[in-house]
Amino acid sequence: MTQYQIVGIGNAIVDVIAQCDDHFLARMAIDKGVMQLIETERAEFLYENMTGGRQMPGGSVANTVAGIGALGLSTAFIGRVSDDALGQYYAEAMRASGTDFVNPPRAGDLPTSRSMIFVTPDGERSMNTYLGISTDLDEADVPQSVAGGAQILFLEGYLYDKPKGKAAFEAAARAARAGGGRAGITLSDPFCVERHRADFRALLGRLDFVIGNEHEWRALYQTDDLGAALEQAARESGLIVCTRSGHDVVIVEGEESVSVPVARVDPVDTTGAGDQFAAGFLYGLATGKPLAVAGRMGCIAAAEVIGHYGARPEADVAALFAAQGLLEG
């Protein structure tokens, strides 16, 4: 059985990031600050109108796993790409970043997924995502030897959008837990939560941890009272994490409740903040750190990534942890 400290399963998406102003967003009819799913024609139109775009492998859980790999843990990512130029690029770029891309590109009619991300001067990112082949992921893409050998398996909520992805997700979680590992999920976004609320509520009792932001937790419990939502979540799940856009992070496991302060940072680009918070937090979890320390690691990783363009760290995040004394003991 293949052993990895962290294995992620999610949408394999090539990110193309470009700077623009609010006038450009209005001219292109792009809703500011949100993620929109788009079809092929719209994707081609926006791509043609991008200037100075930077290309990099992306996808929420893929970004998290790559961040953890950069911290020195053994990592693998499972996602479907097409056997086209972007798919080949994605697979090679993940391997080059230190994360094994364990399932090869697949032949098929759908192209590799891509997300066009427009960043305005205030740091807000407006994401237009064409899902392409990534949502066709199924159980054949998930080597049970990899899932079953994971110390921590991290799953992307978007996979629930298709029955095949849902089945692959649940089979992988069962394999990980049967092998003695822990399995958890990121709630992905409030609209994803609304689409799959019943499934996600049921998952809370079957997974070991759940990570979401305040909007996702409120959507899950259909309430504006975040405290009430988190109290109920804590009763239903083993470990819950709630990020709150620059405010204290809340982490609850059993009787332990931790509030982790967040240092205010003027963002250059908020792309990947949640993904890299998860990277720092899961790194702490995998290395046996207390919840408060793991939460601080998540906050440091998130602060690093919003200080530059792109969803993956550029600085040595381990050195940032060390400077705060978080790697001692």
Description:
- Helix 11 runs antiparallel to helix 12.
- The model has no long low-confidence stretch (mean pLDDT 92).
- The protein has 13 helices and 14 strands.
- The protein is globular.
- By secondary structure, it is of the alpha/beta class.
Main attributes of the structure:
329 residues, alpha/beta, 23% strand
Strand content: 15-25%
Arithmetic mean of pLDDT:
92
Total of DSSP H or I helical runs spanning 4+ residues: 13
C-alpha Rg (nearest Å): 18 Å
Structural class assignment: alpha/beta
Largest sheet: 9 strands, mixed
So what's the overall shape? globular
| Spatial strand sequence of the major β-sheet | 6-5-1-9-10-11-12-13-14
Unreliable segments of 5+ consecutive residues: none
- The helix content is 25-40%
- Series of H and E elements: EEHEHEHEHEEEHEHEHHEHHEEEHHH
How many individual β-strands? 14
Distance between the termini: 30 Å
Task: Provide a short characterization of the protein structure.
The protein is built from 13 helices and 14 strands. It has helices at residues 22-27, 40-49, 60-70, 85-96, 144-147, 163-178, 190-195, 197-204, 214-221, 226-236, 273-286, 291-305, 317-323; strands at residues 4-9, 13-19, 35-37, 54-58, 75-78, 99-101, 113-119, 125-130, 150-156, 182-186, 209-213, 239-244, 247-253, 256-260. A nine-stranded mixed sheet has the order 6-5-1-9-10-11-12-13-14, sandwiched between helices. Strands 3-8-7-2-4 form a five-stranded mixed sheet.
Indicate the topology.
Blueprint: E1 4-9, E2 13-19, H1 22-27, E3 35-37, H2 40-49, E4 54-58, H3 60-70, E5 75-78, H4 85-96, E6 99-101, E7 113-119, E8 125-130, H5 144-147, E9 150-156, H6 163-178, E10 182-186, H7 190-195, H8 197-204, E11 209-213, H9 214-221, H10 226-236, E12 239-244, E13 247-253, E14 256-260, H11 273-286, H12 291-305, H13 317-323
Parallel strand pairs: 1-5, 1-9, 2-7, 3-8, 5-6, 9-10, 10-11, 11-12
Antiparallel strand pairs: 2-4, 7-8, 12-13, 13-14
